[in-house]
Specification:
Elements: H1 2-25, E1 41-43, E2 50-52, E3 63-69, E4 74-77, E5 91-98, H2 107-116, E6 122-126, E7 145-149, E8 168-172, E9 190-196, E10 213-218, E11 241-245, E12 264-266, E13 287-289, H3 297-304, E14 312-314, H4 322-331, E15 336-338
Parallel strand pairs: 5-6, 6-7, 7-8, 8-9, 9-10, 10-11, 11-12, 13-14, 14-15
Antiparallel strand pairs: 1-2, 3-4, 3-5
């Protein structure tokens, strides 16, 4: 009996030693991270309430003036008025803007920019009321780009013709027309006239035979709309992108068919009831937004059957049913037709 007790005791001892070895092989106990202290509080005078300390963030300046000089130096000014004492003779690019709608840019500052900035290559003015653009008397042999947006600008000066190096002009303003001298900007390649109030298409544009990009968009709030286009587009043989939106067009002139380099044509937000014949056969067309037109099914279906190009065709918000859209897709099997399904 003693023999069995001794053997049993040795077995227990062996198990105890084995368990201790296993404990030693286990990793160290997890590190307990200290609980972060709650934010400090302050008590309002005269009350027993406590409030967290609030750290105020610096406010962004209402005016934005970014300057890049010809030597590569970059400047950021906090106020437009600082331009009065700034040397503009070596400015390469100048961008002015404001986060406050209706902020005015004084005519004196704008005249100083155009008089002294004869090394400028790019000028951008956004969300600043300038009402009238200053007379341009100084030479600007390097100024290739001007972008004017939301400035309440209704007219351009005749002296804009002095900007003979200009290649890009983008103006998102309620212009009522273009000066006849605009036709002298022979180096223009890109022209955007958005938010305009044109009642007739500016014929000065047809003198700009280097244009590859032409985009006009009427003021969607305005009552004045373009209803027709001159049949003179063969004078713009380099056009690759043509867009006329927010107008009252229902037909296109035959000369648009002569634009053999045309790749993108946007005639959304007009009054087309069918697809215009002038765009049936343009060989390089690949991107055609045609949304928000009051299409009539039978005339539109007949016009679709004559389309020869393939690419992306956008027909959103044109009043057709899903079944009709799908039928268009079947006819234009090599074209991707995009449409909404809300009229099914």
């Amino acid at each position: 009996m003693k023999k069995y007790i001794i053997v049993f005791s040795l077995s227990l001892l062996t198990l105890s030693v084995s368990a201790q070895k296993k404990k030693k092989k286990q990793g160290p106990p997890p590190v307990v991270k200290p609980i972060p202290e709650p934010p400090k509080v302050i008590e309002q005078a005269g009350t027993s309430e406590s409030m967290p300390v609030m750290i105020s963030m610096p406010m962004r300046a209402a005016d934005q003036v970014r300057i890049k000089k010809t030597d590569g130096q970059e400047l950021n000014l906090e106020k437009l008025e600082e331009l009065v004492s700034t040397d503009l003779a070596q400015v390469k690019t100048l961008s002015l803007g404001s986060s406050i709608s209706g902020k005015k840019l004084s005519s004196e500052i704008l005249q100083k920019i155009m008089d002294e900035g004869n090394q400028m290559e790019s000028l951008e003015i956004s969300n600043l009321d300038i009402s009238t653009f200053p007379e341009i008397t100084a030479a600007h042999p390097k100024l290739k780009k001007i972008a004017l947006s939301r400035n309440n600008l209704s007219v351009l000066p005749a002296s804009i013709s002095n900007l003979t190096a200009l290649e890009e002009f983008d103006c998102n303003n309620p212009l009522t027309g273009l000066p006849s001298t605009f036709a002298q900007l022979k180096n223009l390649k890109q022209l955007g006239l958005n938010g305009n109030l044109f009642s007739t298409f500016p014929k000065e544009i047809f003198s700009l035979n280097k244009l590859s990009f032409l985009y006009l968009s009427g003021n969607y709030k305005g009552e004045t709309k373009l209803t027709d286009l001159p049949d003179l587009f063969e004078q713009l043989p380099e056009l690759k992108e043509l867009g006329i939106e927010h107008a009252g067009l229902s037909t296109l002139p035959k000369s648009i068919a002569a634009l053999k380099k045309l790749e993108k044509a946007n005639f959304s937000f007009n009054q087309f009831t069918s697809f215009p014949a002038a765009l049936y056969n343009n060989p390089k067309l690949v991107f055609i937004p045609f949304t928000n037109n009051p299409l009539q099914w039978e005339p539109f279906l007949a016009s679709v059957k004559k389309i020869k190009w393939s690419g992306l065709f956008f027909l959103n918000d044109t009043g057709l049913s899903k079944k009709q859209y799908e039928q268009v897709q079947q006819i234009l099997s090599k074209t991707d037709v995009y449409y909404d399904e809300m009229n099914d």
